[in-house]
Structure formats: structure tokens, C-alpha cells
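Q: Given only this backbone (431 positions), what sequence would you predict?
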């Protein structure tokens, strides 16, 4: 493979890569969201899981700027050493220019524009036509390359309600102007596994372009459509990329769940015997990643969630319990140990000191001593305490171990992540 750093010398079969969009689409969940520190921990956990790319935010949104820059510094330091950090912008040249201005070290972006007749008419009231959409996309794509972005993906919003003819035309134009891949967005969860397989297979054969699947769960088929679409891409001779969110978070009914997608690729009959998933994926980190996202979003993991739900490996009826005890393969398709489950978890049932925005130095030292963190001086300890207080102001819940350790290890970056710059806002006083 050329141009994406995934292949060495010699020919290699086409593969499926995971692009997690929790920090871009997941945080758009109505009534919910993540603090910048929480988004940072998500990126670190995705890196531990070997996820190929994290769409980590909006480079044209100014309250994201410090967080984005700090996470790029973590990547430059090698703390985030595997996962690429990519931004999302509208396919408008001025947005691409602003992204470069605000986040100058950003290497990867996806540019997005609506392609269906419904959205062209419904959003723009016939001010633009499909030809205008293609023109705006290619202009933004050219601009991104001129400004030195290393890789640019192109999103066809509402692709599932866009005609085959227009999709092929749009994709070929993106390819001609140097796009890395086409993101097929099933924005309303309209597709079914059979339809999306055929459409993606056709698009792959007609364009030869790597294809990324972005599926919503409005009809409960986001995971099924994602893996079926990926199969269509592979059968069509191109690489497939699947967008996921941790625990399926996202707008309306959510997106394709990260762990479920990985399990479907690794364990379902669709890919039985085929080694198609990115080798770097580390399912052993799935359990703690799902738990942290649940805590950060404040949304419990459903009891029947694949792989990470409380009942995913629970058996009660006589036949099932007897069968599972005789051989786990009787009623378990995969092992809980594969997801990093099975170790006892310690739960405090007595005195428990937590850290928040009003914590004092003694409680602070007690918590960090349990984490085996030592400070060089009283001044350093009080500086970290102050950062912990500010972090709690943003999360509004007790900080967990990963968050506390991050602040202690990278205090300068933590301070940047916790800082919001409002200097660009100029308000005129009213008499």
C-alpha cells in the first residue's frame, strides 16, 4: 500500500482500520458532553487500544484550540504513539484556512459536505446544486493540500440518500484532487446491511478509492451496516475504514459501537477465517475504555451490551449455566479475558477521600499516596492540587485514577487543556 504508512514492501491484502469519532461525533450527543481533560483521556485509551485514528475535535472551534494543541504535543512526545489525531471541518476553503491558523501543527483533517438532494434542497433552499457541492469540496481539498495538510479525507454527508451516479462523480472528483479516502456517511441510519454492501462494493469498483463507513444507529443497524459496508469495500478491492464511538455514543440513537464493531470483525461468520482487521487493535484495553467513557459521559453501559455489559458473560438458566460450566464455548462465542475482564475490582466501602474543586492539601496527599505518586516539594504538590481543582470544575465529578495520573505526569499540558482563551470575544457594553 502506498501513501498511508500501513504496508511495507510487497503486496498485502486489503484491511479494515478503525477511526473512532467519540471526541467529535460522540460529544455531539444531546444533553451530554465531555470536558477537555476527559477527551484527552479518551485519546490515550484509544491509543492503548491500537485504534488507527481518533477524530479528536473541531479545529475551527476556538474553545477546542488549547486541547487540540496539547494533544498534538502528546503525540509529538510519543505519549500518544500509535493513534493519528484528525480534525473535522466543513468543506469550505475558509474553514480549512482557519483550521490551519488556529491549530498549525494539525496534520490530518476530514472535510465534510452534504451530497443528497434532500439536504441540498432542505439545507440550502436551492441556492446550490450538486455541481456546486463538488466544486466547493474540490476547492476546499485543494486549499488543504496547499496549506500543507498531510492527509485529507472527504465526507459525503447523507451519502446513503445520494444517488449512485452522484456518489461516483463526487468520489472521483475527490480522488482526482488528492483525497486519501471517501467517507460514506449513513447520516440518518437509513441503510440496511444488504443495500450498503452493494453500494460500497459498486463505489469501490467504480472509483478504486479507499472507503470509510460512518453509520448511525437510528434503526439499530449501525454495527451491521458498518461491517457489511466494510466487506463490500474489501470485496471491491479497496481498504475499509469504520467510524466508531465508545459505547455507541452519538447524536439521536448514536453511532456504531467501538467494541461491537471489533468483535463483529473478529468473531462473526462474515469474516470467519479471514485476517482482515488492523493488527494493532488491542481488545484487551476494551473493558477499561468502555468503563471510563461511561463514567465520563455519565451514561451507564447497558446490561446487555456486547462484550462489556454486566450480563455479557452471565448465565442463569439451568441449561445455559450447565453448558457454560462444562465448556465455555457452549454458550460463549469469545472469552471475557480477551476484553481485559476477569480481574477482581476493589470497591471502597468505608472511608473514601475524593478530590474536587474544594479539596485541601491533606486529602490531596492521601489520594496521591495511594497512587504511589511522590512530589519533589510542597510547592509542586500545591501546584498539582490547584490543577486538580480546576479539572474538577470542568468535569464536575471526582477525578479518577487515569485523570489524576495524567495531571501529575504532564502538568504543563494539563494546564493548557484546562485553559479557555476568551480574548477573541469582544463585547460592546450596553448603555
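A: Predicted residues:
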Amino acid at each position: 500500500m502506498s501513501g498511508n504508512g500501513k504496508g511495507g514492501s510487497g503486496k498485502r491484502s486489503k484491511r479494515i482500520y478503525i477511526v473512532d469519532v467519540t471526541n467529535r461525533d460522540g460529544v455531539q450527543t444531546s444533553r451530554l458532553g465531555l470536558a477537555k481533560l476527559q477527551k484527552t483521556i479518551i485519546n490515550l485509551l484509544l491509543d492503548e487500544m491500537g485504534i488507527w485514528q481518533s477524530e479528536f475535535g473541531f479545529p475551527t472551534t476556538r474553545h477546542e484550540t488549547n486541547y487540540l494543541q496539547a494533544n498534538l504535543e502528546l503525540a509529538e512526545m510519543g505519549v500518544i504513539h500509535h493513534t493519528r489525531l484528525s480534525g473535522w471541518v466543513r468543506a469550505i476553503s475558509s474553514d480549512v484556512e482557519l483550521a490551519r491558523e488556529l491549530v498549525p501543527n494539525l496534520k490530518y483533517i476530514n472535510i465534510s459536505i452534504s451530497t443528497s438532494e434532500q439536504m441540498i434542497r432542505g439545507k440550502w433552499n436551492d441556492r446550490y446544486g450538486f455541481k456546486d457541492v463538488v466544486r466547493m469540496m474540490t476547492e476546499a481539498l485543494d486549499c488543504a493540500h496547499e496549506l500543507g495538510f498531510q492527509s485529507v479525507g472527504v465526507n459525503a454527508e447523507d451519502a446513503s440518500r445520494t444517488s449512485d451516479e452522484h456518489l461516483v462523480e463526487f468520489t472521483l472528483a475527490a480522488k482526482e484532487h488528492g483525497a486519501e479516502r471517501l467517507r460514506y456517511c449513513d447520516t440518518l441510519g437509513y441503510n440496511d446491511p444488504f443495500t450498503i454492501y452493494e453500494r460500497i462494493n459498486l463505489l469501490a469498483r467504480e472509483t478504486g478509492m479507499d472507503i470509510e463507513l460512518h453509520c448511525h444507529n437510528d434503526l439499530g443497524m449501525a454495527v451491521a451496516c458498518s461491517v457489511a459496508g466494510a466487506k463490500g469495500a474489501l470485496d471491491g478491492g479497496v481498504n475499509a475504514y469504520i467510524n466508531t464511538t465508545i459505547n455507541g455514543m452519538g447524536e439521536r440513537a448514536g453511532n456504531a459501537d467501538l467494541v461491537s464493531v471489533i468483535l463483529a470483525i473478529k468473531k462473526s461468520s462474515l469474516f470467519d477465517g479471514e485476517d482482515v482487521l488492523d493488527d494493532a487493535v488491542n481488545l484487551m484495553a476494551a473493558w477499561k475504555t468502555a468503563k471510563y467513557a461511561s463514567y465520563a459521559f455519565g451514561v451507564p453501559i447497558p446490561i446487555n451490551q456486547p462484550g462489556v455489559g454486566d450480563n455479557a458473560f452471565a448465565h442463569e438458566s439451568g441449561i445455559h449455566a450447565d453448558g457454560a460450566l462444562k465448556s465455555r464455548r457452549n454458550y460463549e462465542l469469545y472469552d471475557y479475558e480477551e476484553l481485559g475482564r476477569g480481574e477482581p475490582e476493589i470497591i471502597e466501602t468505608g472511608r473514601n477521600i475524593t478530590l474536587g474543586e474544594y479539596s485541601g492539601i491533606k486529602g490531596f496527599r492521601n489520594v496521591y499516596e495511594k497512587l504511589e505518586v511522590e512530589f519533589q516539594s510542597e510547592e509542586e504538590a500545591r501546584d498539582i492540587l490547584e490543577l486538580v481543582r480546576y479539572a474538577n470544575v470542568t468535569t464536575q465529578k471526582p477525578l479518577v485514577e487515569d485523570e489524576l495520573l495524567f495531571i501529575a505526569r504532564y502538568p504543563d499540558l494539563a494546564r493548557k487543556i484546562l485553559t479557555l482563551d476568551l480574548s477573541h470575544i469582544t463585547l460592546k457594553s450596553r448603555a
